[in-house]
Amino acid sequence: MRSPGARSGRARRSRKSRAQSGISGAAALIGAAALVVSAVPAHADPGKPADGPGQVIPAGKTATPALVRGIREPVKATGSPADAARGHLAEKKGRYRIADPGRDLRPVQTLSSGTAETVRLQQRHRGVEVLGGQYVVRMEHKDGKRVVTGTSGKYFTGLKTATTPEVDAELAVERAVGATEDRLAGKRAAAGPRKGADDREDADKAPALTGTARGLVVLPKGEGVLTQHVTVRGADPATGRPVLEEVYVDAKSGYPVLQYSAIKTFGPQGTPAGKPAAANGTRTAARHGLAADGPQDGTAGTGVRLDGKSVDLQVFKDAERNEYVMRDLSRMRDSTKNELSTWDARGKSVDETSGTWPEGVKEFGSAGPAFGKEATEAGAVDAHWAAGKVYDYYRTVHGRNSLNGRGMAIKSLVGVSYWGMPYVNAFWDGTKMVYGNGDAEYRPLSAGLDVVGHEMTHGVVENSANLVYAGQSGAMNEAIADYFGNAIKNDTHGIAMDDPDSGLLGESLCRTKSPRACAFRDLNDGRTTSKSFLGVGFGTDNGGVHLNSTIFSGALWDIRQDLDKTLADKLVYKALTEYITPLDGFTEGRNAVLAAAKDLKLTDAQLRTVERSFNAHGIVPGWELAMGVDSDQLLGKVNTNESRAGAGGGWWAASKSNDDGTEAYSVWAGRTDGTGTPKLISPNDGRFHVDPVTDGKTVVWMAYKGRSVDLLSRSLAGGPIKVLHHNRYRFTSLAVEGKTVVFEEHGRRGYTAAMYMRLGQDDEPVRIPPSEGTGRFNRTSHPSLRDGRIAFADTHRVDQVYRNELGIIDVASGTRTAVKPADVQPTVNATAITGKHVFWLSMAEYGTGLTAVRRADLDGGNIVDISPAAGKDALAGVLLTATDEAVTVLAQTPDTEYRNETLSKLWQFSPDGARKGRVSCNRGEQLGGAADTGTRVVWNDATTGYTDLVTRHRPAGSCG
After folding, report:
1. Which CATH class for the 33-154 domain?
2. What is the C-alpha separation between 258 and 248, in angstroms, rounded?
3. Which residues, including other chains, have CB under 8 Å from residue 45's CB and lie 6 or more apart?
4. How far is residue 717 CA from its own chain's centroid?
5. Is 344 a residue whose pLDDT tops 50?
6. Higher pLDDT, 300 or 16
7. Per CATH, which fold does 469-578+604-625 belong to?
8. Bigger pLDDT: 466 vs 2
9. DSSP H stretches of helix in 525-627
10. Which pTM value belongs to this model?
11. Could you state, in order of their start, the residue ranges of all structural domains in the chain?
12. CB of 677 within 8 A of CB of 686?
């Protein structure tokens, strides 16, 4: 899928122009404008640091500078490079404001090149690691003496949070797995079980999600937020897609405050990543016939690439297998004696290869040193040849020995499928490359030298700047991988930088399409600038890591076109390995490249070329300017994670943290027409108060604290907060009307049940049972409420087949009505009920992602589709909300291109389906959605890069 080069659409003129003062790096990820290091303030003197000559770029919300360069300060401290670096920071305490570098900075990496030394130091707050808190010290070491030449990074001086957790690792794992299941729920609803699954029991055979506690981590928001870091792995039970999520659970309340995927793929499709177990293909010398004192030299072999060209390969005669294998022992024989190898993973699904070393795989083998058609068609020849070329590039041009700079083994798995079906993607998982098998149009992904260079460069990034793979920092991670992948391909194949197709990536993968039609991205699209930045939530492309990457990679590509190519490569590599730190964004990346350019002594004309390249892509200090919106803001910068807003009766209810995102969330409410002053509904008591709903009289919400999730209510007029129900697990699909509250309760092993309570009448919730059976997948879910009636999804097994129907229950009388479509619906997702009709999302075919919007009368009759389940007008719906006048669907538009129009948007229909239009034409992602009255909708909008609560009282239309 292509990223932003092919975007279309236009931003609408703003009703309320809002400046976003610095969404830098992963600042939005951790909810903090406090991480801005975008520019030198007007009052600062960039030429005079606190106690010496040089240039200082100060950082926002921290006293430690973002960058210091142009100095030559002798180091008094002796010992290791790390000791010397920390000694310098201690000596210059007036500049760096780091109280105790020896205690609060832990060495993570030292890079030596000639006389130059670069030391990376990880910040710790009271012994606990700080996410993204990394500081770099650059030195020259000659004749036993060291001189500091510069520093850069992020050290957060305002952290004060206590570091004793109230939530243990066990509960954190439970909460993290639950949060991941919630995030997958919408995608499950849209995609359904994988193709080939006979029923839900078969779909459930996929590996369950498991969580691994990784220890305490401080998120650098304001005074700091103490969290338990959990890695969640496994496969989505419904789709079989692999899952790898990094989840940070508030260590006081147990609420997940940060979550993103640890996936590093070539294309925007979600693919897994992880780290294999220690025994991931390690060999003994005796087992493979190697000499006891180390590997022997390999053999010159040959093979044919997928483009038909014969190439030389470094292979090895394996004595045990009595055949030649794709094992290159030549490239690292003068250092670590590690190998570069290519393995046959045909017959393995992608979930078996991510985060683990799959059982039974072997290196590609051949009776002779000439590898034949089988190795070609699997993509093995391309992978083995290309990995050698990428290794040689980094070794020759940058003096880097393998991906970690210390001669690590390089392993590639080829031929991986998606549950036996085509898999058109590739990824780096921390220790190896994994390449998909392709399909009828796309060759195996290893067929692109730029793809191989991209994935291996992810390994270089991970072992240097380690850019957090989310938001702007993640987009920079992708941009740098694209830049070097493209550079290696162009130089290897002799493609001139002025060739019209020289900026393409993945253009050689197609069997029939032209290069330009085939390419995933174009670094020379000529259009991608910061003005086309797309604000999205972290559940979408990890916050836009592919969507927004060409803003930065385009600037780097321009530098390469306008400067000497090798000089440009050295410039970007130096910035990556010596300046950039994990939470840096586009502005810090610009500063890093410019500083590296000065270190490399570029001429004034060359420096202006570098500056012009960034300027042309809109990456200038303070580029995060106002984004045009056509919605009205109700609550700005809510700084919350995964909490939806509610609306009804002319009122909205939403969760909000404080301005720097450090406080636990509180529930606020206000009028949807924007009049009056919002009022605090929940206490600000350290619990996380989330997912509020309202009918204009009462607010109902959840509160997380430790092992308990409370369901709470309070009158908008004031009065006491009432505890309605407790549960160890979460609630979803909350709704309130008068004295009735409905919700879906979750439990262990996928248990769900639709329930209701009558305020002042029921002490315990009333469970709505499925119409038939008691099996594990016989359940009710997705309740909605109107006029005393509850609509819900009714899943039960009939004649060995699971049926998905709809039920309606009258709360007062207990009368139950079944809505039974003529077809056996694969899914009933969200429901919405009004005074006249019931609506629901239904998928006609698993795996398409497309859902019909169906309508029935309240007696179960007259079932019609007001939006089709197939064809060009079909939507991939995930959420539904309705009034008597309008039905609103949160959906994506299926497309072959990843762009603004394919992000989650709100669509509104008239109840008969005659009218359809977009609720808002805002660029970026629209999250959630709650109908108030008439056609008014309230939602969380990510257009500006922050998440704001906004509204429109009538639909915007076609947005053409």
Report:
1. alpha beta
2. 5
3. none
4. 40
5. yes
6. 300
7. Neutral Protease; domain 2 (1.10.390)
8. 466
9. 541-544, 549-562, 565-578, 586-599, 604-616
10. 0.83
11. 33-154, 169-261, 469-578+604-625
12. no
